[in-house]
Amino acid sequence: MSDEPQSLFGTDPSQQDPEEAVREQAKRRTRRSFIVGAVGAVGVYGALHWALKTPELGGLPPVLRRTLNFNGALSHAVFGDRALAPTFPLSHAVADVRINGVIGLDPALRLDRWRLQVKGLASPQSSPHYVPDVNVWKYADDAAIMAQDASLDTYVEGDGNLDRENGLPKGPEPGLLLTMDAIQALPHVQMVTQLKCIEGWSEVVHWGGARLSDFMHAYPPARGAHGRLPRYVGMETPDRQYYVGLHIDDAMHPQTLLCYEMNGQPLSRYHGAPLRLVTPLKYGIKHLKQIGSISFSDKPPRDYWAENDYDYDEGH
Amino acid sequence: MADYASAGQSKFPQQESVEDPAPPQHPAGQSHGEREIAASAPLLTLREKHPLATRWMHWINFPLLALMIWSGMMIYWADSDAANLHPHEVYRIGIGHWTLFRFFPEAFFDKLGLTFSLAKGLSWHFFLMWLFGINGLLYVLYTFISGAWRELVPGRHALRDAWHVLLHDLHLRRGLPSQGKYNAAQQIIYTLIILAGAGSILTGLAIYKPTQLHWLTTLLGGYEFARFLHFWLTMGYVVFFVIHIAQVALAGWNNFRGMVSGFELVRGVGAVSQEEPR
Questions:
Q1: CA–CA separation, A59 vs B74, rounded Å?
Q2: Taking the model in full, what pTM does it have?
Q3: Fewer Cβ neighbours under 10 Å: the N or C end of chain A?
Q4: Whether B126 and A71 lie within 8 Å, measured CB to CB
Q5: Residue A138 domain-assigned?
């Protein structure tokens, strides 16, 4: 064992067993790649942690909300929402359409006391349905009628002019108060399309009503610079508990209906009588039942489910 | 750190590599004589196995797919929860109105904390889909441009060879068919998993944009069937994952390190490579 001291100092690979050099190299590369991997994993974890800790944007971490908005804008840019949803033979339509979601729906709403409030029109004053403030219209349901029938008037100037959500007085909003006769005077259309719920289920439904685009021709919205249409349409239930925003291109789509019929019959109360929105471009959560008001604006209208962490666009 | 020499054999040795197990590594401080005996055996060699790009894309895909499944489960929960209100006809095993098993039982979602998170699941799914899609696209591009696809795409006799590999793995057959970097069974499965990834993206798009891309949705059998396919492809990943992990565990450290560090140690092939991967 005379060479024992030599091997103790044998750090030079050339003096070692050639396999020792290979093992050293393997060890070195292994160590390096595992360190890089660990740093990468920590980096990704840290980035996610940071992204999810930053203040939320409309109920979602900004990175997720911005991605949803980006996806919506990209979809709009790519597809232009021009595609027509597939239609089905009448025989495919389900007889008993599922009732799903009753937020903002008053099943006891007196249909004779229903009016469609329309805001943001080009020249509402010229219409016989013009009122200086549409918000003062008082909807009534059977219970309310029974409780205080005499005190309820159809149109009370200066009354009920409150922001329902914040209870703050709102400025007057001039517009129209339309009855169902005005909607039914528009060209009647029917279609059989698939309603897709964001929860996963879907049903083929036979709808009937008027195109929203026909409505907008009959009651033209106020145009902005260069004669451009406003960017958005907002709809709310009479009690303001449910509300949706729709891009103007989706509103102008030939399959976007102000719907008042299902399976050839007037809408049932739980399906949104007397008037609801139907658009096969969007998930069911945009198909607002019992429309109380329609407004046109350049500002994105508030949207119930977007406020509850869902995508604003909800196009599909 | 592990004993490299004893891990010198991969599960599926290449044609040129030796069939015998690696000679035992001599402990430090051995005599000259023993060293010379060891050196006369085929030389231990560091052989490049997986390129850096492949390794990065492989490891990036792992958490991405896991998170895609996690957020997907939140989306499925909403459908399962409404099963009593609506015939559950997509995520199940059954025929017509008869259902044997529904995906998934409520307790499953409860245990994993996936209940009442539809909005969260959707927003994550539609965020991660970009990363999953980009990573997958880059992988396919890289594999084609680098020529690595030649080792991956199954050849003419792949089915027969894969059968022999399976029999060998089940200890029903001795010896393995000749192979390159991957054996025939690996080639078939790895190619299928890439095709499944493309399938997930296509069925995902068909579900995501069934109106704007209605031709794609129709091509994939309609909205419900596209969702059915999307779900079962994912179940396929889970099965693949279990088998993959088992095989990697059986194959040992040398093989696993190949996917992390890019090389494996083999005996008797060429000279020692001093080249470090970049």
A1: 17
A2: 0.83
A3: N
A4: yes
A5: yes
